[in-house]
Amino acid sequence: MKGTCHCGAVELEVTLAEGGLATARRCDCSFCMRRGAVAVTAPLGGVRVVRGEEVLTLYEWGTRTAKHYFCSICGIYTHHRRRSNPNEYGVNAAILEGVNVRALGEIPWNDGVNHPSDR
Predict the structure, then answer these.
(1) Which neighbouring-strand residues pair with 90?
(2) Alpha-carbon distance 6 to 19, whole Å?
(3) pTM over 0.90
(4) Which of 18, 17, 8, 5 lies closest to 47, judged by CA?
(5) DSSP labels, 6-18
(6) Which of 15, 54, 91, 117 could be 79's S-S partner, Cβ–Cβ 3.0 to 4.6 Å?
(7) Contact 58, 67 (CB under 8 A)
(8) Is the residue at 114 inside a domain?
(9) Distance from C-alpha of 46 to C-alpha of 18, rounded to nearest angstrom
(10) Residue 78 belongs to what H/E stretch?
């Protein structure tokens, strides 16, 4: 699948994990609640930056395990390397060409407030 930020400076080629769009989740950790994005799962080798690597900005905090990427021009969150499973990426479903997040129906929530890494 092709994914782009709002301004088009960043383009990703994404291969979703088994389950595809059915892997869509929201998270209630302090960061994700503010971001509000729906993430779908891709394996570690399933995200390739086709264009705009130089404009991607990395955001880390806390354990610095999760790596969150944003377009430095338009600010759109594109993807992140997961803290819960560093062998996976969460990809912003809304950047994927042809995906209407509203059409995905009810999206399950992950309990990021009580993350196992915080115990």
Answers:
(1) 41, 80
(2) 26
(3) yes
(4) 17
(5) SSSS-EEEE-PPT
(6) 91
(7) yes
(8) no
(9) 11
(10) strand 77-81
